[in-house]
């Protein structure tokens, strides 16, 4: 299907047989991150114009109501379709060094030269601390709405320590 396969071609433009053939020929890797941590990262990167995390979350929730949700905080299951695509690997944020090392070894590539020096434990600790601080800024209603909005991500992936799964 090389003649139809360009950067701009969306998977939905192919028929079911073409999709199955293409996906069967690739190693499919899905990188996932706790949805609450994705919201924090988006806020910290300044992608929202809100002065506080609570008002940013309210903007996100309002965009859900208006059906204008940004890809930056859209649920992963709606973006990556893990129920339809059989991913070969699912890599959780916070375990990149371990998981990427495994993937590189499976591909026959030298791990030591290609892997950056990740500090997974420091990243996990920092996001845990940030999550505690920012979660405490939210109203009970905002917490419930976020949990509902991300319910399918929380069901599909093992985000056992997510603040939204409580």
TrEMBL record:
Its main location: Golgi. GO terms for cellular component: Golgi membrane. It is an enzyme of class 2 (transferase). Keywords: Carbohydrate metabolism, Glycoprotein, Golgi apparatus, Membrane, Signal-anchor, Transferase, Transmembrane, Transmembrane helix. InterPro entries: Carb_sulfotrans_8-10, Sulfotransferase. It is a single-pass type II membrane protein. Signal peptide: none annotated. One of its GO terms (biological process) is carbohydrate biosynthetic process. Its EC number is 2.8.2.-. It is found in: Golgi apparatus membrane. GO terms for molecular function: sulfotransferase activity. Belongs to the sulfotransferase 2 family. This is Carbohydrate sulfotransferase. It comes from Xiphorhynchus elegans (elegant woodcreeper).
């Amino acid at each position: 299907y090389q003649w139809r396969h360009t950067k701009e071609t969306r998977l939905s433009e192919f028929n079911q047989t073409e999709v199955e053939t293409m996906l069967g020929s690739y190693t499919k890797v899905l990188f996932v991150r706790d949805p609450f941590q994705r919201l924090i990262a988006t806020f910290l990167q300044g992608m929202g114009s809100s002065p506080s995390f609570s008002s940013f979350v309210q903007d996100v929730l309002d965009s859900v109501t208006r059906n204008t949700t940004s890809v930056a905080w859209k649920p992963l299951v709606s973006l990556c379709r893990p129920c339809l695509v059989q991913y070969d690997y699912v890599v959780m944020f916070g375990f990149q060094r371990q998981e990427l090392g495994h993937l590189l070894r499976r591909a026959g590539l030298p791990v030591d030269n290609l892997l950056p020096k990740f500090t997974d434990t420091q990243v996990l600790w920092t996001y845990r601390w940030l999550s505690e601080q920012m979660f405490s800024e939210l109203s009970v209603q905002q917490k419930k709405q976020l949990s509902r909005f991300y319910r399918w991500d929380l069901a599909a992936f093992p985000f056992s320590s997510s603040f939204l799964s409580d």
